[in-house]
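User: Can you help me understand a structure? I only have the sequence.
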Amino acid sequence: QELRPKSLDIKQEELGDMVEKEMASTSEAIEDAVRRIEEMMSQARNESSGVKLEVNERILNSCTDLMKAIRLLVMTSTNLQKEIVESGRGAATTQEFYAKNSRWTEGLISAAKAVGWGATQLVESADRVVLHTGKYEELIVCSHEIAASTAQLVAASKVKAEKSSRNLGRLQECSRNVNEMAANVVASTKSGQEQIEEKDTMDFSGMSLIKLKKEEMETQVKVLELEKRLEGERVRLGELRKQHYALAGTYDAAEEGEAKPAPAPRRGILKKPPLAQKP
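Assistant: Let's start by predicting it. Here is the structure, written out as tokens:
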């Protein structure tokens, strides 16, 4: 609701100007986002190293790729809007066209606002993640929001565009590219989070001697517990195998007993018949 312009407070002749202003504002927000990401990259290289630097660079690079994809999307959307206005306004002016199609224009403005807002939020979330004051989940949510607002912008543009429009085809291709780049941000964020969490569990550099000794004893207790449990499971596995072999042997013997035919009764030995005498 905050992103949606209030129609009652806006004169219809101002709608056309608002479209241009919002698209320009969105482009400026994206350009600013790209600059801020470059600054964060430089800061991360100066203040972090090792795994954290690797994770930060991967996340920020994916965010940069997403911003570039959004910038191309906005440029293509602007070209498509000009094409729509030129082909649909007839003898009317641009302002009159936007005023006549006020609901469509408001949807376009709302979608442009959402794209610019999503880009700004993504950069702010990335900044907090790099400074270790934010959550990785924020980046994931922002990526999903950008994908949704991109779909909204494409849908708003598609309503008035000709199906055979080349700019429409380019816009749909840009939308798919934005979705792909947003998915890359999500993937790099998740893998980075797992990498950082795994490193943090093995980072003992800040521990005192007493703390290290305590951690060592607790780990030894866990090792002994796991070894005891492992030994118990091995014994259980051995007993299960013994029972299995025993049952299998009994079953095989029973099967053989059932399948073995009963011995035939022994008959007497037949004598060879005497040869016939010659006459």
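Now, to help you interpret it: Residues 14-196 form a domain with the I/LWEQ domain fold (CATH 1.20.1410.10). The chain is about 80% helix and 0% strand. Let me know which part you'd like to focus on.
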